[in-house]
Amino acid sequence: IVGYTNAGKSTLLNTVTGAEVIAENKLFATLDPTVRRIRFPQDREVVLLDTVGFIRDLPPALLQAFSATLEEVADADLLLIVADVSDPDREQHMETVEKILGDLGAGELPRMMVLNKCDLLSPEDLALERDRAGRDTFFVSALDRRSTRPLLEAIEHHLWERGRVERPAYAIVPEGEGEAEAEGEAEGEAEAEAEADEGAA
After folding, report:
1. What is the C-alpha separation between 199 and 194, in angstroms, rounded?
2. What's the domain count of the chain?
């Protein structure tokens, strides 16, 4: 999920996943990437990544500081580009988003346009926006989960066709073996954490 700062990316993530990512009306409310899974019918899952908001004329030093949080954008199977449809500076903001995506090597990735805050438009303005909207454009109010259903269906369809939707793995454990297996997993996790701590040190 990418877009200009304050476009409503974190709010969208919260609504469709039930997460509690900080969503505030200020610059860089999201500083670190947040990853959440969303499960579709038939046990189909995808991973959504919320990123730091883009901003025009970001100083190179600050962009470099955020580069680690944006590296995974170039590896995405699908970009959800969120824009505030009610913002009079939307076109300028989109130019900034496109430039930064290009700098990240993500300019040619598959994408869907998510025009958020459509509830702030008059019916007449919303109708005009819909008339001129391009393909794979979705109008949502990120606070209203019902408005996101067409978007979610499109995401599932797009990724399922390309084999990029995961199915959770389930295992049948014979009676009596579950406790021993859980203890083994706990020991393994403890060892892994210890190794990680040693590496960090």
Report:
1. 9
2. 2
Residues 115 and 183 in one domain: no
Q: Which of 71, 80, 148 is nearest to 110 (CA)?
A: 80
Q: How many CB atoms lie within 10 A of CB 57?
A: 5
Q: Which two tokens stand for residue 88?
A: 């009079």
Read off the pTM.
0.74
Per-residue pLDDT tens over the stretch 143-196? 999 999 999 999 999 998 888 766 655 555 556 555 554 455 444 444 444 343
The Cα–Cα gap between 195 and 201 comes to 10
Q: Tell me, yes or no, whether 188 and 101 share the same domain.
A: no
Residue-range definition of the domain harbouring residue 191: 173-201
The amino acid sitting at 102 is: G
On whether both 91 and 14 belong to a single domain, the answer is yes
Spacing of C-alpha 68 from chain mean position = 16
> In which order are the strands placed within the sheet that holds 111-116?
2-3, 79-84, 111-116, 137-139
